[in-house]
Amino acid sequence: MKKYLLAILFIAVFLSGCVQQTNEYLTPDYVDISAVEAKELIDSTLDVIILDVAPAFDYEAGHIPGAVNIYVGELSSRLDELDSSKAIMIYCRTAGASLQAAQILVDAGFGTVYRISDHYSGWVNAGYEVTTGSTLGEFSDGQDPEIETTPGTELTALANIVDYDYSPSELHVAVGTTVTWTNEGNMQHTVTSNTGLFDSGLLSNGATFSYAFDTAGTYDYYCIPHPFMIGSVVVG
């Protein structure tokens, strides 16, 4: 009986060690941070490269100041444009692209990689500055590209439609803010006011809808094909 118990104990210890090793192996070597934490990190150090992995048209429409643009689909072939001795901060408009980019850098041996987990929309909704236009996508001359700086603080806000949810489901903005919804899912959805004030029509994957909220109040909306999907914009 004593030998039987010892055998069971040995097997349990062995299996627990395997589970621990498996979990460690699956843990990604990048760090998820919020937009607020990203801003604090940017303000505290000059040795961080901000990397926007969205397509060029999304980047030019608005991005974090100082960010360089390398589309995630080209990242593997353009790694030599990034300084691996510096921290890299990745963000995009969707989780899939930033997750893929973070893993590419980790697999390539980049030592310090951050991913903004609440995406570009988190940065905008936090009221931080954004810029528009293109950049050279290089660091050779150490010069900042000439881009237009715009206060994207209280005038624009972003929301996503993911699967069967609006994210965020309740968005707080200032009077005069234009809110843009982007459908990131494969199903068609609408952004339709409960009072008929606005209606996006059917939005396919990647489609956007914008509406300017010029009067304080709470604006509830829903999806016509999926009425259980509800959201609200609180303006004030």
Summary keywords:
28% strand; Immunoglobulin-like; Oxidized Rhodanese, domain 1; 5 helices; 4-stranded mixed β-sheet; 26% helix; 236 residues; alpha/beta; 2 domains
Structure description:
With 236 residues, this protein is α/β, with parallel strands linked by helices. The protein has two domains: 31-129, 3-Layer(aba) Sandwich (Oxidized Rhodanese, domain 1); 156-235, Cupredoxins -  blue copper proteins (Immunoglobulin-like). It contains five helices and 15 strands. The chain has a five-stranded parallel sheet. A four-stranded mixed sheet has the order 9-8-11-13, with helices on one face. A hairpin with a 2-residue loop joins strand 8 and strand 9 (165-167). The longest helix has 25 residues, at 2-26. The termini are far apart. The relative contact order is 0.12.
A few lines on this structure:
With 236 residues, the protein is of the alpha/beta class. It has helices at residues 2-26, 35-44, 56-61, 95-107, 119-125, and strands at residues 31-33, 48-52, 68-69, 87-91, 113-116, 130-132, 148-150, 156-162, 165-167, 170-173, 177-183, 192-193, 208-213, 217-222, 230-235. 30% of the residues are buried.
